[in-house]
Every structure is written in C-alpha cells, then in structure tokens.
Specification:
Largest sheet: 4 strands, antiparallel
Distance between the termini: 54 Å
Shape: globular
Radius of gyration: 19 Å
Number of domains: 1
CATH architecture: Roll
Structural class: alpha+beta
CATH topology: Nuclear Transport Factor 2, Chain: A
CATH class: Alpha Beta
Strand order of the largest sheet: 3-4-5-6
Number of helices: 6
Order of helices and strands: HHHEEHHHEEEE
Strand content: 25-35%
C-alpha cells in the first residue's frame, strides 16, 4: 500500500513541475544530434516526395510531429520552421518529381540555395557527426531564459543561443540563434 501512495505522490508532484530551462534547451539538441547520427532524414528535417500528380512536394509533417513529441518546442518555433521551409516549397511547386530526382542524382547541391537543409544539418550548420553538447551559460528571468550551448566534435566547437519561455508550466524553445 505504501508503494502505491509513494508512486501516486511522485506522479502528482512531478506533473505540476516545469522542467528547468536548461533541460528545455538540451531537449531539442539531444534529440537532433541523435537523429542526424542515425541519418534518418525523416526525423530531423523536411523531405522531398513525389506528389499524386507527379509533382515535387516538400513534406515536413514527420519533422513537426517529432518536434511536438519533444515537449520542449513552442508553437512559435514550429511556425518559424514552416516559414524556413517555404522558399524551398515555393521553388518546387512547378518542378516535376522526375526532373528533381534526376538533378539530385547528378548534383546534390543543385538545390542548395532554396533548400540549404539538403546539404547540411541545419541546426548544427555542418555535416559533422556531433559527439557532445554542454551548457556554457544560463540567463534565467521569471518567464524567459537564454541558454548558451556548446556543441563538440573532437576539437571542433560551435555555440548556439537557445531562447525559451515558460509556457503552461513548461520551458519551451521559441528561437535558436546560429551566430554568437
């Protein structure tokens, strides 16, 4: 009986707590680094697929679903991701899939300008197989936070600044800055 009471207490007390801003910032990058190591493009970015009329379509539904499942991503961040994919989507609207597929086979960098996420992992700005991530600095206010992260691969380092807001008692990412 005591075990059930203890489990119930733990469930109730953990449900009302917000994870820390640091946990919120690490949540995305831990998932992203794992996803790019697995090279499963359906996990960490938009993919190109053939539409029902033979057209080229950009599909990012799986990616958005993955962001939702993390629990640390704000709606505004998801909307900025959709906007980021828009120039690529617009570019493909008049290109038959057969032409796209043939061009990619011959030159993978053909779509580097409208779709730069095809030739690099966007959130690490590289094709590096990242090994670790750590928090360098935290600036936390009542309902907002800025967490500076360092990504590492051997001797190579990159920094990212992750902006979070406390939304419905959870720290959620609203923006990530590439330049520091």
């Amino acid at each position: 009986m005591r075990l059930f009471i203890l489990i119930g207490f733990l469930l109730v007390s953990s449900h009302g707590k917000a994870q820390s801003p640091t946990d919120g910032a690490l949540c995305f990058y831990e998932w992203y680094i794992k996803a790019i190591k697995g090279r499963n493009v359906k996990e960490h970015t938009a993919i190109v697929k053939k539409g029902p009329k033979g057209e080229t379509l950009l599909d990012y539904e799986r990616y958005l679903h993955n962001l939702d499942s993390l629990g640390c991503i704000a709606y505004t961040f998801k909307q900025s991701e959709i906007a980021r994919f828009q120039s690529c989507q617009d570019y493909f609207k008049d290109i038959p899939y057969a032409i796209y597929y043939d061009q990619v086979d011959n030159d993978a960098f053909t779509y580097n300008v409208p779709c730069p996420f095809f030739t690099q992992f966007y959130w690490v700005s590289d094709m590096q197989p990242w090994e670790s991530i750590k928090v360098l600095e935290s600036k936390i206010k009542e309902n907002s936070a800025e967490i500076q992260l360092e990504l590492a691969s051997g001797a190579y380092r990159q920094k990212r600044l992750v902006f979070l807001r406390l939304i419905e008692e959870k720290w959620k990412i609203i923006q990530i800055s590439h330049s520091l």
